[in-house]
Amino acid sequence: MAEDRQPQNESSAWRLLPSSPDAAPQLGLEPQTDTQPQTPPAHWRTRLSQTMKAAVLVVSGVALLSGVVTGCAKNAGAPGSDATPGGTPGTTATSTAKPLGDYVIMAWQTIGMKCTSDNDKYFSFHTPGNDFWAQVIKRGDPPVIVTDGIKLSYEAPENHNEPSKTINFWDYAKITLKKDIQPNTGKTGMPADKGEFTLDKAKKAWTAIDIPVSPYNDDGKVDAYPMFAVRATDAASGKLLAETKMSAPVSGELGCYICHGGTPNKDGVGLSDATARDILADHDKNVGTNLLAEAEAGRPQYCLDCHAANNVNAPGKPDVLSMSAALHGKHAQYMQNGSIETCGLCHPSSAKGQVYCERDVHRGFGMDCMNCHGTLPEHAASVLMKQKDLPAAKKSLERLKPYLPEGFTEAKPRENWINQPDCLSCHTKDHTKASTKMTSYNQWITEKPHLYRFEKADNGDMMCAACHGSPHAVYPASEALGYSEINYQPKTYQGFAGPIGANGNCTVCHLNEPADKNYHHKNQGQPFLPPQFANDPK
């Protein structure tokens, strides 16, 4: 990473949060009754120890560059073979990769799961808009990142071209966003079916921002991981140079109905009118607004007009809690059971749902949401502390005190969607081992350019996500629930699901094996052993 941030090495501070006798029901989760912070249970200490050893390999096998269209690489282990996947030196393996051409494309989405509401009739808060990034490599010695002379385009899969059939965003956008947006185009005018990337010169990457993708296909079937085609063509002749596929994760799996009543719209996904009405009724009661009456009069509101959200550059109002602080701060008072099931009540991470977005390599090594983000009360405290002078923040922080055994003042103020954990929150600077504290809570990066999804390797201009994959979907990602193409690029280029370039597969981009196998970051030449994802839903 470009920024010289030091990993944290404090001893583990595991927290099992107590429940308040005055708190709301625990929503079917087992309440915690202890009043003091505890050390991890024995099985957790074992799991963390194993995770710390295994996590060394997550970053060790990092890629050099990455590839696209056709992808054969040296020593690629075939699925089901006795050889170590990716071909550890000394093994014999049959490659399942395709032959490489002159160019390769690495394409990814900037967040591992784009949450999108299918119902804006009462309010709008999760508008459609997936962001695609890509880098195109001219293979050679050395390889070259291509920034001119080409056109890069995307195309939605068949039966995933008309999101306006399944979500009603466009019916209300003129009211909520005060913009007349044509059906099946995004807020920036990007079309849903096909379009072109533009060059970000500073990043040497191509971007297609705000593509409207529905959590359903055009027939209304839940499809959380549609695979988009990405193609590079010669700008002058139109000749196809390379092509690949990338996942465009999108979810409408909202758990609001669990507390607010109503039902999901379809197959556990979607926001019903009944649920939306109850949410607005509670908002009116708690804040003194008149949102329900406004919505029923045909004037639904855009939540981010008041509540800031840095992920979509919504400034909000300075005297109002950010969207993240408002939602987490309020709900943490009633959902303080210190488990990952709590996260899955609202986020599409539950193994019992239709999406299961918690699927990247870290999950395979036994980690979960809380290792990076803390428990729900801890997560809430961090964003509330950023606005601690606001009366609403003070009230929420005071109510969270019983669920923060070490005191909420330990939470470092965090700007929503910017001050996030990253690789070096846990992994040491030389990428050789994990630190002794397997949590990145309170270890935030300080600036947006250093977010993992925008960060570059130590040397050169390759972006980290080009070789490692999207946040929350870092290679190899779980293929649970039948989404077998989620690791399409590494499988296509090198024959196994793992960081692109891992286990001696430098020839995805290089014509010959380079002498320095640690060029992009230290220790990347070490063997990568993929996890098993044994506990994932089928």
Count of β-strands: 13
First-last Cα distance: 36 Å
Gyration radius over CA: 23 Å
Mean pLDDT: 80
Give the helix proportion (percent range): 10-25%
Fraction of residues in β-strands? 5-15%
Largest sheet: 5 strands, antiparallel
As for the number of domains, it is: 1
**What is the H/E order?**
HEEEEEEHEEEEEEHHHEHHHHHHHH
Descriptive overview:
Residues 1-43, 77-96, 517-538 are annotated as: Disordered. InterPro entries: Multihaem_cyt_sf (IPR036280), Multiheme_Cytochr_ET (IPR051829). This protein is α+β, with helices and mostly antiparallel strands. It has one domain (42-508). The chain is built from 13 helices and 13 strands. The chain has helices at residues 42-60, 169-176, 257-260, 273-287, 291-296, 323-331, 340-346, 361-364, 369-373, 376-385, 391-400, 464-468, 488-494, and strands at 103-109, 114-115, 123-124, 130-138, 144-145, 150-155, 194-196, 198-200, 205-211, 227-234, 240-247, 250-251, 301-302. Helix 6 crosses helix 10, helix 6 (323-331) packs parallel to helix 11 (391-400) and helix 10 packs antiparallel against helix 11 (391-400). The protein is globular and about 65 Å long.
